[in-house]
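User: For my dataset I need records formatted as: sequence, then structure tokens, nothing else. Please produce one.
Assistant:
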Amino acid sequence: MAPFPVIEISCGTVGGMSGGAVLDSHGAIIGILSMGLSHDDGRGPSNAAWIIQALQFNVALHWPRDVYPPDCPILDLPDNLMRIIGREHVALSGSLQIDYTPWR
């Protein structure tokens, strides 16, 4: 139903939770809560926008001053500034295009 790649998660959500982080069992962010389906049991499912799509967007981080490169895609931020688990499996391949190799 969503117009973008999502991960279905088995939890209920209520209004106002959109934009919240979805974490995996290791505490890494894998998605951003975007849509929930309401059921009588309150268990969901809910959908989270897959975080990999966000890696392509440029960010302009102005604080702390002179630390971050200007207008840099998230994926290109240096490892000492942004830890991305599996970074070696993801590459920007064009405007708004991401190529990735699944890993285990």
